[in-house]
Amino acid sequence: MKKVVFFLSVLFLSFGCEKAPISKAIKVANANELSESIANAQPGDEIVLANGVWRDVEIKFSAKGTEDWPIVLKAETEGGVFIEGVSSLELSGEYLEVEGLFFRNGHSPKSNVIAFRTSEKEVANHCSVSNCVILDFNNLNRDDDNLWVQFYGKNNTLSHCYLAGKTNGGPTVRVDLKGNQSIRNYHQIINNHFGPRPRKGGARGETIQLGSSFTSMSPSNTTIANNLFEACNGEVEIISSKTNFNIIKNNVFYKSEGSVVTRHGNYCLIDGNYFIGDGENENFGGIRIVNTGHWITNNLFYNLKGKNFRSPLAIMNGIPKSPLNRYNQVTDVVVAYNTYVNSNAPWQFGVGTNIDQADVLPKSEIRSARPLRTEVVNNVIYNEVGDPNPIIEHDKADGVTFASNIIDNNDVLFAKRDGLDSKTLSLTSIGEDLSVPLLGFEDVEIYSGFDFETITKDILGNPRSKSNQIGAFLNSETIDLDLLDKTKYGANWYSNVVEVKEPTTHSVTNEAELVSKLKAAENNDIIELKDGVFAVSESLIISKPIVIQSKGKTEIVYNGPANTPAFALHPYGKLKLKNIKLKGTNTQFAFASLKENMFNHFGLEVSDSEISHFNYALKVYKQSFAEEITFTNTSISNCENGLELSEETNDRGDYNTEYLTVNNCSFNAVKSNVIDYYRGGYDESTIGGNLLVLNSIFTNCGANEKGRMLLNHRGIVNVTISNNTFKDNNVDFVAILWGAKNNNASENSITNSGQIKTEQNLKLKLMY
Amino acid sequence: MKKVVFFLSVLFLSFGCEKAPISKAIKVANANELSESIANAQPGDEIVLANGVWRDVEIKFSAKGTEDWPIVLKAETEGGVFIEGVSSLELSGEYLEVEGLFFRNGHSPKSNVIAFRTSEKEVANHCSVSNCVILDFNNLNRDDDNLWVQFYGKNNTLSHCYLAGKTNGGPTVRVDLKGNQSIRNYHQIINNHFGPRPRKGGARGETIQLGSSFTSMSPSNTTIANNLFEACNGEVEIISSKTNFNIIKNNVFYKSEGSVVTRHGNYCLIDGNYFIGDGENENFGGIRIVNTGHWITNNLFYNLKGKNFRSPLAIMNGIPKSPLNRYNQVTDVVVAYNTYVNSNAPWQFGVGTNIDQADVLPKSEIRSARPLRTEVVNNVIYNEVGDPNPIIEHDKADGVTFASNIIDNNDVLFAKRDGLDSKTLSLTSIGEDLSVPLLGFEDVEIYSGFDFETITKDILGNPRSKSNQIGAFLNSETIDLDLLDKTKYGANWYSNVVEVKEPTTHSVTNEAELVSKLKAAENNDIIELKDGVFAVSESLIISKPIVIQSKGKTEIVYNGPANTPAFALHPYGKLKLKNIKLKGTNTQFAFASLKENMFNHFGLEVSDSEISHFNYALKVYKQSFAEEITFTNTSISNCENGLELSEETNDRGDYNTEYLTVNNCSFNAVKSNVIDYYRGGYDESTIGGNLLVLNSIFTNCGANEKGRMLLNHRGIVNVTISNNTFKDNNVDFVAILWGAKNNNASENSITNSGQIKTEQNLKLKLMY
């Protein structure tokens, strides 16, 4: 049934344009009504989706509105329409507006959830999606890449939306430029809240990508402005600008593990943004520059500790005459009027240089072309704790002009450089947890480069025309920013702020109770096992954050079928197991992910426990990912295999966990794959995989190890093996370290267990 | 002495702007006065150079005019000021205008004759050079590359100038984009006459180059409009667009041996140009396309016979993920509303493909990426003589859309293709020697691609908004173009039209007279030697076009010093020697260029003559160049060496003559270097070097030949060895042909002279 309500067009909205059409509000309750109303839609019409769940609906919103009389497709109540199941939205035509939808509990049947086209040549122009939410709308398998929002056409807008939780491969949002229908697009990505995007475990986890290397010569003119990026940790690039003339302006990057990167394309303006870290996490980055003509102005870098690729300003070395998909030389870049507060070594040059590998890599891989005609001027640095090296030259910065820069290094000596002078400054509070230098450099003569007259405003939009000064902020009476007020970003009906609930502890006395309470428990609840022995014959399903513990080291004996896990780690399943003795009958797994459909991450933290008599202590299947897997004060003994995370063999840079930590554990009589953690594929900017093996003892392990290696972490970038004892393990190698990367071993005692070897350069398949 | 004339400012020119300054006209007579007046110049001033020759003057015109009150530097009389000797002009500042100068009889001491900057950061903005001439202002040595006009800064103009005769390396005009001071420059190169630029003999002979591969990512926005390009034969590229957003509009390319090439950079608009050939010369090209987003609209291609790289429309194959200085794939190109008249195989795709060499070349050299998303639509082809293959696919054109194209092939069958339909058309005269189809396709439905609404006009500027049709021309009542009226282009005081004078014949009876008459003779005169023997002891200087002949095969015996030539070929020296017996005493050269300072080309045509007893019959030194060297009906005997043109060993693609022709000649007892003609360096787009050896006899030659080869033409692209007799020459090879290029041998008789071998791929040094 369709309700049609005629209403009088609001005439005063359309002065000076075509005669107001007779507009209708059409309420639709199912997919058929929806497509019929779209087919008949006229300029000014409003198609209203009835509240409730719309399951398995593929919306093709193809129609022609006008500038004054757009066609609107909206939820009956903002946030009251839930798009679930296997669903998607495509738009094409002109002047269409979509509002108030909530995409959740499902995934798209297409290569995108929302697409601004309905076919290759039928694209959207002047269309918008606003006030919508896409939450965890992930494909079932993480190798099944897709986009959540894919722009085509021109002059389209994504505004006031909340997008979070993408775990599968592919950027959250991508602007596509193939074809003249999609260049000079002037798309707007504004006022959105990009909520947490978990670590992807490899590449292809950008939050926004503007084009690709194949369209890197095209003018895009996309604007990304006034968005909040919160914990966008997918990969090293939060925004990957790959086309020309993009504008990234007035955004807040809050505790996001990555950088804004001008990866390809040229003449990007990065102006007035806030990059805010916590003063500790070295993964929070700033801006990384490749290519020509970018302007980085009026930005604040705050409490950032990223290094090298992730430093506040990372200017890369290029490859001379670079191939299209590699690294063009940096030229004609302007870095002016920025402020750096407590951000270590903010200016790094020649990042990515590998001239020392000129003998082992082909010439077309050597990043030896230093930045040219680049200006770093009119910037202010303040370090509460002095930084001996505010400028780091991985390669010489001889093509860079420094001028009119000021540093307060709190009396700590630093490498002097023309154009960077000391001054004593003070901080002024400009909002909660935000204090910056506003004063004390009024007398510094401003460097004026070519076209600097186009830098007309400061980070707050105040005009620089009178009483201009260096740094991102002009001095003004009172500034009270509330950058992290989340109501300013995203959908007005949705908040990602979760009230912390006190966890409930459920006492459990037998197996049946364990199964039922586990099912009934809420997120983060605690299952407390009574003392004694629990005989479990079916896998315990972990599909939420949960704690399972006991006081007296309760024993769980798992006697289920061979090659099934005692604890089955499902999507969202984050298990903390404490003080448990976990025993199998030699054929099962202690912990395992699902074999497929791991559409969301799992997690595992085992402490003060004993694991024995399993086929595998841990078996992580392909396309499963945990941000962290931790074993502490735990013994693993008498198992055929230990911790197995080695199925990500597509060599595209993927791996199964970001952090695998083994601390103060003992491994005894684990016959193969004691630790087997794999990452494949060569790509200089994938930084991930972290293995920490600390204070642990390995004895009588590796007896059946075909690879003759105890700890196999081939391709993992960060490895620390420290303060361990290896005794009587029948292998040739404890480990082989990757010398070119961050692999370290120290303070280990090795007896009758082979050796630790370093291989400088691994042969890996190129990822690009 | 300086004359200062105050005059009242013309107020009506400056309404709405600043108060009119007190402007002066300042006449200057020498360099000191000039630089003083420049130093003191104020907005509105006119600095007037006194008529006459200004020798060895380096003008630095650095000043600041205003939009309404520019500062002018002009000749007292247009064309009356001759800049000669070692001289140059540099401009920097704003709103400067240079007018009426004639650069001749000299060269620049700098890397350019006219530069729009005075130092790296002191550039010109809003400055112009107009109504000037640069003629033969060549560096002394052709390897000493330079530019004649080099643009820097922004918004500068070269207009109404005549430039011709550049022989040394380097484009005639280049726009430089390094640095933010020179991007988005909106320079104008308009209404100029680019007169003959002789064949360069290798690369680096462009008439206009817009940027370089190193700045190919930068927006240039340069306009080249309403110019006449006449015999711009320097190399395969007349205009080489290497940056973005350039406009090439309404130019006439008349009998110019080259193409307009979008070599690097993207989004070039090539609109409304006339490409006019002679229906025979295969070197007259059209438009060659590399890279992305170019629009080729409203052009006329007339009587062009160029093939492959030089075809009317050559769409190249790219290299996948090409290095910066190689070939990007063609994508998103529009070829619409063009007209082709009697231009063979006008559309060629996959030009430059070398996938058949995938086994012998590195992957980064293989041009296998075919054009994508390219549209060839709304075009008209008329062929008086039907063309069986109007479309040639060197590689598949499967990424190209053809639509709404019409061909009149005069009933000759051609390979059918969707989007190219037959129609019977007629030609309408639109001016002298110019007839095009205007009618008969009104009913063809026009294809409308993305943004096609921006094609608002036809080639003549008529609006397409009503009664639009395909092809370059809208139908209108009478069109009478006078494209070749040279008064419309270049300096208004200069014409390159030379009246043909009847040559004078000077009879000469003795050596002294020969020397004096040779000196006194005018261009193209004839020196007629009486019968008998002329004993010549000093080189005869050939420094102009001249004919030396006799009736009865007069003998010239040259007994000058060893290793000096009987005929010294100086710059401009073009000798036709007819019916002469030329003898040395075994140590001299019959003909030789200068060892250095060959700042202009020479030429040599020997017929019906006998040359004997020389060390070298012909010795061409490095950096000397002749467009043509021809021997006909001539014997060369008893010489240590024959024709030696092998000093261009820099392997940058250079060679000493465009055409070396030997027809109906005999070579006997020439001991080494019978023919030695070299070109080095690999670059797929250098097309030159032509050797023709026809109907000739070689006997008892090569006795001392170390290379064991009679005809050595290594690296020469076009070689024909045909209908010759080789007998009793003590060599292993008559010649080694380059199989991959246009080298042919046929109908030769070889006895006791080794063999002719073909080597498919020569190993050559890469030029890029």
From TrEMBL, chains A, B:
Pfam families: Chondroitinas_B. CDD domains: PL-6. It comes from Algibacter mikhailovii. This is Alginate lyase. SMART domains: PbH1.
